[in-house]
Amino acid sequence: MSDEATENTDLKPHGWRHSATWTYLVMLAASAAALVVSFILSADTLKLARNPGQQLGCDVNAVLSCSSVAQSWQAEIVKFGGLSYPNAFFGIAAESVFVTIAVIGLARVTVPRWFATCTWLGGLAALAYSYWLTSQSLFVIQALCPWCLALMFSTTIQFMALSHATAVVQELPARKNGAVRGLDTYYRLNYDLMVDVVWILALVAIIMVKDGPMIFR
C-alpha cells in the first residue's frame, strides 16, 4: 500500500462511534421508539373514532392536547376511495421498514449502493414529513401532541444515525480514486456530534419560544 493510500486510510473515521454496530444500534433504538409511538397514536385515533369528543390521556391543557391534533385535517391527509387514513398508520409501516434496515445493518449484511441511497432518501422524506406536521401543530392547529413530539424527536435521531451509517459504513457518496471526502473529515473530527446537539437544542428552543409559557400552565 502506498504512503498516500495509508494516509487516506488514517484520515477516515475510526472508533466505536463510527462503527456499524453503534450507528445502526442508535438507529434501531430511535426507530423502535418511533414505531411504539406510532402504535400509541393509532390506538388513540381508533379511540376517538369510536367515541368522538372523548378526551385522551395526553390532553393536559389547551396547548398540550392530542385530541385537537388528532381531529385536525392534517392528521389524515391521505384520502382514497372516500376514506381518509390516519398518518399514524403510515408511521407504523414506515418505522417497521427502518427497524428492519437497522437490523440488517447490525447483521453486517452488504446491501447494494442503490438500496442504501434509497434508504437515506426515505429517511429524509420521513423527517421532512414529520417536521411539516410539527410546524402545522405549532403554527396552524395551535396545539401540541406530546406523542407527536416524541415521534418527531425520535425521527430526527433516526435520521442522524442513518446519515452517519450511510456516510461512514456504506461510504456514500463514493470516494473518487481513494481520496478523502469532506464527510470523512466531518465525522472523523466528530463535528456531527456538535451539529446534532445544536440541532436538538434548536428544536427544543423553537417549541419553548412558541408555546413554552402555555405548556406549563
Automatic annotation (TrEMBL):
Domain Vitamin K epoxide reductase: 20-166
Keywords, in A-Z order: Disulfide bond, Membrane, Oxidoreductase, Quinone, Redox-active center, Transmembrane, Transmembrane helix
InterPro entries: VKOR, VKOR_Actinobacteria, VKOR_sf
Record's protein name: Vitamin K epoxide reductase family
Gene3D superfamilies in UniProt: VKOR domain
Family as reported in the entry's similarity comment: Belongs to the VKOR family.
Molecular-function GO term, any one: quinone binding
Keyword Cell inner membrane: no
Gene Ontology cellular-component terms listed: membrane
Membrane topology value: Multi-pass membrane protein
Locations listed in the record: Membrane
Parts of the chain that traverse the membrane: 20-41, 88-107, 113-132, 144-169, 189-209
